[in-house]
Amino acid sequence: MTDFKQLSRYGILDAKVPRYTSYPPANHFNAQVGNAEQSDWLRAVPEGASVSLYVHIPFCKRLCWFCACRTQGTSTLRPVESYVETLLREIDLVRARLPQDVKLSRLHLGGGTPTILSSALMALLLDKIFANFEKGASFEFSVEIDPTEASPALLDTLIIYGMNRASIGVQDFDPRVQAAIGRMQSFQQTSDVVHHLRSGDLDSLNMDLLYGLPLQTPQSLSQTLQEVMSLQPDRLALYGYAHVPWMSKRQVLIDEAALPDPKMRYDLSEIARVLLTSDGFEQIGFDHFARPGDGLATAKATGHLRRNFQGYTDDTAEVLIGLGASSISKFPQGYSQNESATAKYVAAVEGQTLAGARGYVLSDADRWVALAIEQLMCGFQVDIAQLQADFPAYGPAISTAFAQLASAYPLGVALTGDRLSVNPGFEPLVRIFAGQLDVFQAPQTSHSSAI
Ligand SMILES: C[S@@+](CC[C@H](N)C(=O)[O-])C[C@H]1O[C@@H](n2cnc3c(N)ncnc32)[C@H](O)[C@@H]1O
Ligand code: SF4
Questions:
Q1: Does residue 146 fall inside a structural domain?
Q2: Of these four, 165, 316, 361, 373, which has the most CB atoms within 10 Å of its CB?
């Protein structure tokens, strides 16, 4: 039996599984956790703690058909300007609840398209953030950049304010694939932005790529990867295209007949993995690659790799504060998500209240599962003895859960002594193995496919 046959027996072609950027996944958050809990959890952050900030900019000038991100189209800067005004107020509301001497570990601007901001608006936002949050010793500042919507002046502003990590959306360079996903972006446009960014003090340049797009073939993906590698990124995120038109309505514009079938999706992901690793990239978790020496590769080597709402990260701050519509904050006590609709988010903040609308209070029964899933997703193994030492009340439950996982997937994982490891070749199934520990995971179609 080939490896692929075994992978498909274990569900790689048909399982629908969360990406586990949090546990429990955000679709299990509830409205009992609102801005009162968000406020209490902000006030409970200890003096001297490291916190990270995620700022969501939910606007784009173009709406790419494939995109499943929380964003909205705008042809003018007017709504963006008033949204930034609201963000400034939200920063005041959040800062007033935090102790005086918190240190900023990471600042990440994501979207949507953060680079839609004018230089002046970006400067206004960054001045406000840096006036309120003192940078910690290993501070990093990262931004998601759409190369078709990033003026040289805006890039210069980001460089002046110390952006040291940039993430560029590429997806695919083949013009036929680009036309099929409603996102035209030339190699030259992308290359110009890369060269501009390299003129600053950039420590790490990431590019986002997708496999499983309509009309993608092994040849077209290999060609895209050759072009991407010629731009010498330090990191690559290689996501499987999530076709979820019931959640992301604009995806109805995608011709489903042109989508690769599950076996081709698997082949495309393997082709990319082999090409990238033979070019010297290290695989990080199940969907990232990094050059040795890049922060993510170092975090993997030293056991500091973590998972958060942006995917894999080397940030070890215990508190992540999400600002803006739909942003999620993570606290030791649980998760808090802001109002998703921009109008409701603005109304909350303009009414001088925090915008937390839903969330989740973590119990110890959730915490050990969350930690085990994070370890599986980051290092493909779990130190069961350590987990039981950290959660003594759950010792027997932990033993039972891992024994059940090993007996459900005897070829996929190995249970040796006090350690569970994913067997070589079965890494693409890690989300399915994680799902076995997930007590919320019931048969459902709302998630994307396992490959
Ligand atoms: C929020 S987008 C920001 C990128 C930026 N606006 C741009 O267009 O370059 C971040 C990334 O999410 C990924 N993404 C968006 N929709 C996706 C989908 N349906 N399936 C998988 N990944 C997706 C893409 O790789 C994209 O670059
Ligand atoms: S891929 Fe980027 S530019 Fe396109 S719709 Fe999504 S967030 Fe907007």
A1: yes
A2: 373
Do 328 and 336 meet the contact criterion of CB atoms below 8 Å apart?
yes
Determine the atom of ligand 2 nearest the C-alpha atom of 60. 8
Number of domains in the chain: 2
The angle at the Cα of 11, spanning 8 to 16, to the nearest 5 degrees, equals 140
CB 172 less than 6 A from any atom of ligand 2? no
Which of 205, 112, 190 lies closest to 158, judged by CA?
Answer: 205
User: Which of left, alpha, beta for 443 (phi over 0: left; psi -120 to 50: alpha)?
Assistant: beta
For atom 7 of ligand 2, the residue with the nearest CA is: 112
Q: Read off the pLDDT of residues 13-64 as tens digits, 9 standing for 90 and up.
A: 877 889 999 999 999 999 999 999 999 999 999 999 999 999 999 999 999 9
Verify that 202 and 283 share a domain, yes or no.
yes
**Residue 253 near ligand 2, beta carbon < 6 Å:** no
Q: Is the same domain home to 75 and 149? A: yes
Q: Where does a domain end: 263, 297, 323? A: 323
Q: Give every CB contact of residue 31 below 8 A, 6+ residues apart in sequence.
A: 357, 358
Report the C-alpha gap between 38 and 41 in whole angstroms.
5
* Structural domain that includes position 165: 26-323
* Least confident window among 2-6, 52-56, 231-235, 333-337: 2-6
- Look at residues 429, 329, 323, 324 and name the one whose alpha carbon lies nearest to residue 376: 429
In a domain, residue 345? The reply is: no
